[in-house]
Amino acid sequence: MEEDKNGVDKFMNIDKFISELIGYHEQIKQLKASEVQYKNLAGTLQTSVTQYQTIIDHLPQRVYLKDKNLFYLFANPNYARLLGVNPQEIPGKRDHDFFPFETAEQRLKDDRAFMEKGTPEEKEERVSEDGKERVERVAKFPVRDEAGQVAGILGISWDITDKKAREEEQERKTMELTRLLEARTNEWKETSDKLQSEQAERRRLEEKLDSLEGFYGILFENTGTAVAIVEDNQRVARINSEFERMSGYSRAEVEGAKNWSDFIHNGVPQNMEDMRKSPDPNSPDPRVQAFQFVDKQNREKTVSLTAARIPETNRVIISMVDITKYKQAREELNRILKQFTELMAAMERGVKNLDG
Protein backbone atom coordinates (compact mmCIF):
# COMPACT_ATOMS: atom_id res chain seq x y z
CA MET A 1 0.00 0.00 0.00
CA GLU A 2 2.86 2.24 0.81
CA GLU A 3 4.38 1.60 -2.60
CA ASP A 4 1.09 2.32 -4.33
CA LYS A 5 0.81 5.56 -2.48
CA ASN A 6 4.29 6.58 -3.46
CA GLY A 7 3.57 5.70 -7.10
CA VAL A 8 0.49 7.88 -7.10
CA ASP A 9 2.40 10.78 -5.57
CA LYS A 10 5.14 10.45 -8.13
CA PHE A 11 2.57 10.42 -10.92
CA MET A 12 0.88 13.51 -9.54
CA ASN A 13 4.25 15.29 -9.30
CA ILE A 14 5.06 14.33 -12.89
CA ASP A 15 1.64 15.51 -13.98
CA LYS A 16 2.18 18.78 -12.11
CA PHE A 17 5.56 19.20 -13.72
CA ILE A 18 4.09 18.56 -17.13
CA SER A 19 1.30 21.06 -16.46
CA GLU A 20 3.83 23.66 -15.32
CA LEU A 21 5.99 22.88 -18.33
CA ILE A 22 3.01 23.35 -20.60
CA GLY A 23 2.23 26.64 -18.82
CA TYR A 24 5.81 27.80 -19.26
CA HIS A 25 5.63 26.82 -22.89
CA GLU A 26 2.45 28.86 -23.33
CA GLN A 27 4.07 31.80 -21.59
CA ILE A 28 7.05 31.46 -23.86
CA LYS A 29 4.73 31.40 -26.88
CA GLN A 30 2.93 34.50 -25.55
CA LEU A 31 6.23 36.25 -24.91
CA LYS A 32 7.38 35.44 -28.42
CA ALA A 33 4.06 36.72 -29.83
CA SER A 34 4.36 39.88 -27.68
CA GLU A 35 7.92 40.36 -28.87
CA VAL A 36 6.81 40.14 -32.50
CA GLN A 37 3.96 42.54 -31.78
CA TYR A 38 6.35 44.88 -29.99
CA LYS A 39 8.79 44.76 -32.87
CA ASN A 40 5.97 45.48 -35.32
CA LEU A 41 4.71 48.32 -33.12
CA ALA A 42 8.21 49.66 -32.72
CA GLY A 43 8.72 49.51 -36.47
CA THR A 44 5.44 51.29 -37.10
CA LEU A 45 6.27 53.90 -34.48
CA GLN A 46 9.73 54.42 -35.98
CA THR A 47 8.16 54.79 -39.41
CA SER A 48 5.69 57.37 -38.05
CA VAL A 49 8.48 59.20 -36.26
CA THR A 50 10.54 59.21 -39.45
CA GLN A 51 7.59 60.46 -41.46
CA TYR A 52 6.79 63.21 -38.96
CA GLN A 53 10.46 64.10 -38.71
CA THR A 54 10.64 64.41 -42.49
CA ILE A 55 7.52 66.59 -42.54
CA ILE A 56 8.80 68.84 -39.74
CA ASP A 57 12.24 69.12 -41.34
CA HIS A 58 10.68 70.34 -44.58
CA LEU A 59 8.17 72.76 -43.08
CA PRO A 60 8.74 76.40 -44.12
CA GLN A 61 8.10 77.34 -40.48
CA ARG A 62 10.71 77.22 -37.73
CA VAL A 63 9.83 74.56 -35.13
CA TYR A 64 11.43 73.78 -31.77
CA LEU A 65 10.56 71.82 -28.62
CA LYS A 66 11.72 72.61 -25.07
CA ASP A 67 11.28 70.64 -21.85
CA LYS A 68 9.97 72.10 -18.59
CA ASN A 69 13.49 73.25 -17.67
CA LEU A 70 13.65 75.09 -20.99
CA PHE A 71 16.32 72.87 -22.53
CA TYR A 72 15.95 72.23 -26.22
CA LEU A 73 14.76 68.73 -27.10
CA PHE A 74 14.41 69.24 -30.82
CA ALA A 75 14.58 71.88 -33.57
CA ASN A 76 14.04 71.61 -37.31
CA PRO A 77 16.65 72.79 -39.86
CA ASN A 78 14.93 76.16 -40.40
CA TYR A 79 15.18 76.99 -36.69
CA ALA A 80 18.76 75.66 -36.58
CA ARG A 81 19.59 77.95 -39.51
CA LEU A 82 18.39 80.91 -37.45
CA LEU A 83 20.72 79.85 -34.62
CA GLY A 84 23.60 79.26 -37.05
CA VAL A 85 24.15 75.57 -36.06
CA ASN A 86 23.23 72.08 -37.24
CA PRO A 87 19.96 70.59 -35.93
CA GLN A 88 21.94 67.79 -34.16
CA GLU A 89 23.79 70.38 -32.05
CA ILE A 90 20.63 71.85 -30.51
CA PRO A 91 19.18 69.15 -28.16
CA GLY A 92 20.33 69.59 -24.55
CA LYS A 93 21.22 73.26 -24.91
CA ARG A 94 19.53 76.44 -23.77
CA ASP A 95 19.04 79.92 -25.26
CA HIS A 96 22.25 81.15 -23.58
CA ASP A 97 24.19 78.89 -25.93
CA PHE A 98 22.84 80.74 -28.98
CA PHE A 99 21.82 84.28 -28.06
CA PRO A 100 23.45 87.24 -26.30
CA PHE A 101 22.98 87.16 -22.54
CA GLU A 102 20.27 89.84 -22.34
CA THR A 103 18.36 88.34 -25.24
CA ALA A 104 18.58 84.83 -23.77
CA GLU A 105 17.43 86.06 -20.34
CA GLN A 106 14.43 87.79 -21.89
CA ARG A 107 13.50 84.67 -23.89
CA LEU A 108 13.70 82.48 -20.78
CA LYS A 109 11.67 85.00 -18.80
CA ASP A 110 8.98 84.98 -21.51
CA ASP A 111 8.99 81.15 -21.61
CA ARG A 112 8.57 80.86 -17.82
CA ALA A 113 5.66 83.30 -17.88
CA PHE A 114 4.15 81.33 -20.76
CA MET A 115 4.46 77.99 -18.91
CA GLU A 116 2.92 79.52 -15.81
CA LYS A 117 0.04 80.82 -17.83
CA GLY A 118 -0.37 77.51 -19.67
CA THR A 119 -2.40 78.75 -22.65
CA PRO A 120 -1.40 79.10 -26.31
CA GLU A 121 -0.27 82.53 -27.43
CA GLU A 122 0.69 84.24 -30.68
CA LYS A 123 2.69 87.42 -31.20
CA GLU A 124 5.13 89.22 -33.49
CA GLU A 125 8.87 89.33 -32.85
CA ARG A 126 11.75 91.08 -34.60
CA VAL A 127 14.87 88.98 -35.10
CA SER A 128 18.24 89.66 -36.71
CA GLU A 129 19.27 87.26 -39.49
CA ASP A 130 22.25 87.71 -41.81
CA GLY A 131 22.64 91.28 -40.60
CA LYS A 132 19.06 92.13 -41.49
CA GLU A 133 16.09 92.64 -39.22
CA ARG A 134 13.20 90.30 -39.96
CA VAL A 135 9.69 90.17 -38.56
CA GLU A 136 8.33 86.79 -37.43
CA ARG A 137 4.98 85.54 -36.25
CA VAL A 138 5.60 83.32 -33.21
CA ALA A 139 3.08 80.80 -31.85
CA LYS A 140 3.67 78.87 -28.61
CA PHE A 141 1.75 75.82 -27.40
CA PRO A 142 2.06 74.17 -23.95
CA VAL A 143 3.03 70.48 -23.99
CA ARG A 144 1.39 68.56 -21.13
CA ASP A 145 2.25 65.23 -19.47
CA GLU A 146 -0.18 62.44 -18.53
CA ALA A 147 -1.07 64.33 -15.35
CA GLY A 148 -2.00 67.40 -17.33
CA GLN A 149 0.95 69.43 -16.10
CA VAL A 150 2.91 71.65 -18.48
CA ALA A 151 5.99 69.65 -19.39
CA GLY A 152 7.39 71.74 -22.20
CA ILE A 153 6.89 74.25 -24.97
CA LEU A 154 6.29 73.70 -28.67
CA GLY A 155 7.26 76.79 -30.62
CA ILE A 156 6.43 77.55 -34.25
CA SER A 157 7.46 80.72 -36.08
CA TRP A 158 7.32 81.97 -39.68
CA ASP A 159 8.70 84.95 -41.55
CA ILE A 160 6.16 87.71 -42.20
CA THR A 161 8.64 90.46 -43.14
CA ASP A 162 7.31 90.88 -46.68
CA LYS A 163 3.72 90.54 -45.52
CA LYS A 164 4.37 93.07 -42.75
CA ALA A 165 5.97 95.44 -45.27
CA ARG A 166 2.94 95.10 -47.55
CA GLU A 167 0.62 95.70 -44.61
CA GLU A 168 2.62 98.75 -43.53
CA GLU A 169 2.66 100.01 -47.13
CA GLN A 170 -1.08 99.41 -47.36
CA GLU A 171 -1.56 101.16 -44.02
CA ARG A 172 0.59 104.07 -45.25
CA LYS A 173 -1.44 104.30 -48.44
CA THR A 174 -4.64 104.05 -46.44
CA MET A 175 -3.47 106.89 -44.18
CA GLU A 176 -2.49 108.95 -47.24
CA LEU A 177 -5.87 108.27 -48.80
CA THR A 178 -7.54 109.12 -45.50
CA ARG A 179 -5.63 112.41 -45.29
CA LEU A 180 -6.37 113.07 -48.95
CA LEU A 181 -10.01 112.25 -48.38
CA GLU A 182 -10.09 114.54 -45.33
CA ALA A 183 -8.45 117.30 -47.37
CA ARG A 184 -10.88 116.76 -50.23
CA THR A 185 -13.75 116.61 -47.74
CA ASN A 186 -12.61 119.91 -46.25
CA GLU A 187 -12.22 121.36 -49.73
CA TRP A 188 -15.65 120.03 -50.64
CA LYS A 189 -17.10 121.53 -47.45
CA GLU A 190 -15.42 124.86 -48.18
CA THR A 191 -16.61 124.68 -51.78
CA SER A 192 -20.08 123.67 -50.62
CA ASP A 193 -20.17 126.51 -48.09
CA LYS A 194 -18.90 128.90 -50.76
CA LEU A 195 -21.43 127.55 -53.24
CA GLN A 196 -24.24 127.93 -50.72
CA SER A 197 -23.04 131.46 -50.00
CA GLU A 198 -22.83 132.18 -53.72
CA GLN A 199 -26.27 130.67 -54.25
CA ALA A 200 -27.65 132.81 -51.46
CA GLU A 201 -25.93 135.85 -52.98
CA ARG A 202 -27.21 134.86 -56.43
CA ARG A 203 -30.76 134.53 -55.08
CA ARG A 204 -30.36 137.92 -53.48
CA LEU A 205 -29.06 139.38 -56.72
CA GLU A 206 -31.77 137.62 -58.69
CA GLU A 207 -34.37 139.08 -56.38
CA LYS A 208 -32.70 142.46 -56.76
CA LEU A 209 -32.48 141.93 -60.51
CA ASP A 210 -36.14 140.95 -60.64
CA SER A 211 -36.91 144.09 -58.72
CA LEU A 212 -34.69 146.15 -61.02
CA GLU A 213 -36.10 144.45 -64.08
CA GLY A 214 -39.53 145.31 -62.85
CA PHE A 215 -38.41 148.86 -62.20
CA TYR A 216 -36.58 149.21 -65.51
CA GLY A 217 -39.42 147.45 -67.26
CA ILE A 218 -41.77 150.14 -65.98
CA LEU A 219 -39.19 152.79 -66.86
CA PHE A 220 -38.63 151.24 -70.31
CA GLU A 221 -42.36 151.32 -71.02
CA ASN A 222 -43.10 154.70 -69.52
CA THR A 223 -40.10 156.79 -70.46
CA GLY A 224 -42.28 158.92 -72.79
CA THR A 225 -40.02 158.24 -75.80
CA ALA A 226 -39.82 155.47 -78.35
CA VAL A 227 -37.15 153.04 -77.11
CA ALA A 228 -35.57 150.10 -78.91
CA ILE A 229 -32.76 147.68 -78.03
CA VAL A 230 -30.70 146.73 -81.08
CA GLU A 231 -28.19 143.87 -81.45
CA ASP A 232 -24.79 144.30 -83.13
CA ASN A 233 -26.20 142.58 -86.20
CA GLN A 234 -28.81 145.39 -86.47
CA ARG A 235 -31.63 143.07 -85.36
CA VAL A 236 -34.17 144.82 -83.13
CA ALA A 237 -34.42 142.80 -79.92
CA ARG A 238 -36.98 144.79 -77.93
CA ILE A 239 -39.24 147.83 -78.26
CA ASN A 240 -41.65 149.66 -75.99
CA SER A 241 -45.24 150.66 -76.56
CA GLU A 242 -44.24 154.21 -77.64
CA PHE A 243 -42.12 152.68 -80.41
CA GLU A 244 -45.17 150.63 -81.43
CA ARG A 245 -47.23 153.81 -81.62
CA MET A 246 -44.55 155.70 -83.57
CA SER A 247 -43.82 152.88 -86.02
CA GLY A 248 -47.32 151.47 -86.41
CA TYR A 249 -45.90 147.93 -85.93
CA SER A 250 -46.75 145.53 -83.10
CA ARG A 251 -44.05 144.02 -80.90
CA ALA A 252 -44.47 140.65 -82.59
CA GLU A 253 -43.83 142.26 -85.99
CA VAL A 254 -40.63 143.98 -84.81
CA GLU A 255 -38.85 142.08 -82.01
CA GLY A 256 -36.45 139.57 -83.58
CA ALA A 257 -38.00 140.15 -87.03
CA LYS A 258 -36.96 143.66 -88.11
CA ASN A 259 -33.57 145.29 -88.64
CA TRP A 260 -32.84 148.82 -87.53
CA SER A 261 -32.16 149.76 -91.14
CA ASP A 262 -35.82 148.96 -91.94
CA PHE A 263 -36.78 152.15 -90.07
CA ILE A 264 -34.01 154.62 -91.05
CA HIS A 265 -33.78 155.40 -94.80
CA ASN A 266 -31.83 158.63 -95.06
CA GLY A 267 -28.41 157.04 -95.39
CA VAL A 268 -27.32 157.13 -91.76
CA PRO A 269 -24.39 154.90 -90.69
CA GLN A 270 -25.31 151.30 -89.87
CA ASN A 271 -22.85 151.14 -86.97
CA MET A 272 -24.63 152.01 -83.76
CA GLU A 273 -21.56 153.76 -82.35
CA ASP A 274 -21.47 156.13 -85.38
CA MET A 275 -25.03 157.24 -84.67
CA ARG A 276 -23.77 159.27 -81.70
CA LYS A 277 -20.94 161.12 -83.42
CA SER A 278 -22.36 163.90 -85.64
CA PRO A 279 -24.74 166.42 -84.02
CA ASP A 280 -27.60 167.83 -86.12
CA PRO A 281 -28.38 171.55 -85.95
CA ASN A 282 -32.02 170.77 -86.81
CA SER A 283 -32.44 168.80 -83.59
CA PRO A 284 -33.90 170.55 -80.49
CA ASP A 285 -30.66 169.63 -78.76
CA PRO A 286 -27.62 170.34 -81.00
CA ARG A 287 -25.80 167.45 -79.32
CA VAL A 288 -28.44 164.96 -80.52
CA GLN A 289 -28.73 163.68 -84.08
CA ALA A 290 -31.90 163.86 -86.14
CA PHE A 291 -32.96 161.21 -88.64
CA GLN A 292 -35.83 160.38 -90.91
CA PHE A 293 -37.84 157.53 -89.42
CA VAL A 294 -40.10 155.49 -91.74
CA ASP A 295 -43.21 153.91 -90.21
CA LYS A 296 -45.35 151.01 -91.33
CA GLN A 297 -47.35 153.24 -93.74
CA ASN A 298 -44.04 154.36 -95.26
CA ARG A 299 -44.51 157.84 -93.79
CA GLU A 300 -41.37 159.69 -92.84
CA LYS A 301 -41.02 161.31 -89.44
CA THR A 302 -38.17 163.42 -88.22
CA VAL A 303 -36.80 162.04 -84.96
CA SER A 304 -34.01 163.06 -82.65
CA LEU A 305 -32.06 160.01 -81.56
CA THR A 306 -29.66 159.11 -78.77
CA ALA A 307 -27.81 155.77 -78.62
CA ALA A 308 -25.74 154.15 -75.88
CA ARG A 309 -24.12 150.71 -75.59
CA ILE A 310 -25.41 148.59 -72.74
CA PRO A 311 -22.39 147.69 -70.53
CA GLU A 312 -20.97 144.14 -70.84
CA THR A 313 -23.28 143.35 -73.80
CA ASN A 314 -23.31 143.68 -77.58
CA ARG A 315 -26.53 145.64 -77.50
CA VAL A 316 -27.31 149.33 -78.02
CA ILE A 317 -30.28 151.09 -76.50
CA ILE A 318 -31.83 153.79 -78.74
CA SER A 319 -34.22 156.48 -77.61
CA MET A 320 -36.16 158.58 -80.15
CA VAL A 321 -38.41 161.60 -79.96
CA ASP A 322 -40.68 162.60 -82.84
CA ILE A 323 -39.65 166.18 -83.73
CA THR A 324 -41.59 166.39 -86.99
CA LYS A 325 -43.85 169.22 -85.71
CA TYR A 326 -40.87 170.93 -84.11
CA LYS A 327 -39.05 170.81 -87.44
CA GLN A 328 -42.13 172.07 -89.28
CA ALA A 329 -42.53 174.88 -86.73
CA ARG A 330 -38.90 175.76 -87.06
CA GLU A 331 -39.15 175.77 -90.83
CA GLU A 332 -42.27 177.97 -90.56
CA LEU A 333 -40.48 180.28 -88.17
CA ASN A 334 -37.54 180.49 -90.55
CA ARG A 335 -39.95 181.28 -93.38
CA ILE A 336 -41.62 184.00 -91.31
CA LEU A 337 -38.26 185.39 -90.24
CA LYS A 338 -37.21 185.44 -93.85
CA GLN A 339 -40.40 187.26 -94.83
CA PHE A 340 -39.95 189.66 -91.91
CA THR A 341 -36.37 190.31 -92.98
CA GLU A 342 -37.47 190.91 -96.52
CA LEU A 343 -40.28 193.22 -95.30
CA MET A 344 -37.84 195.17 -93.11
CA ALA A 345 -35.51 195.53 -96.07
CA ALA A 346 -38.38 196.77 -98.26
CA MET A 347 -39.40 199.26 -95.57
CA GLU A 348 -35.86 200.56 -95.32
CA ARG A 349 -35.75 201.02 -99.07
CA GLY A 350 -39.17 202.79 -98.95
CA VAL A 351 -37.98 205.14 -96.20
CA LYS A 352 -34.90 205.98 -98.23
CA ASN A 353 -37.08 206.72 -101.28
CA LEU A 354 -39.32 208.97 -99.18
CA ASP A 355 -36.32 210.85 -97.86
CA GLY A 356 -35.10 211.32 -101.41
Describe the overall structure.
- This protein has 356 residues and is α+β, with helices and mostly antiparallel strands.
- Helices cover 52% and strands 21% of the residues.
- The protein has 7 helices and 10 strands.
- It has helices at 2-57, 77-83, 101-117, 161-221, 241-247, 251-254, 324-355; strands spanning 62-67, 72-75, 121-129, 132-144, 150-159, 226-230, 236-239, 289-294, 300-309, 316-322.
- It starts with a helix and ends with a helix.
Helix content: 40-55%
CATH superfamily of the domain at 223-339: PAS domain
Second-tier CATH architecture of the domain at 223-339: 2-Layer Sandwich
Query: How much β-strand is present in the residues?
Result: 15-25%
Mean pLDDT over the full residue set: 77
Strand order of the largest sheet: 2-1-5-4-3
**In angstroms, what separates the terminal alpha carbons?**
237 Å
Specify the structural class.
alpha+beta
How would a textbook summarize the main sheet? 5 strands, antiparallel
CATH names the topology of the domain at 223-339 as Beta-Lactamase
Q: Care to count the β-strands?
A: 10
Can you tell me the CATH class of the domain at 223-339? Alpha Beta
Q: What's the overall geometry?
A: rod-shaped
Report Rg: 62 Å
- Unreliable runs: 3-8, 276-286
Secondary-structure element series: HEEHHEEEHEEHHEEEH
- What is the count of DSSP helices, taking H or I runs of 4+ residues? 7
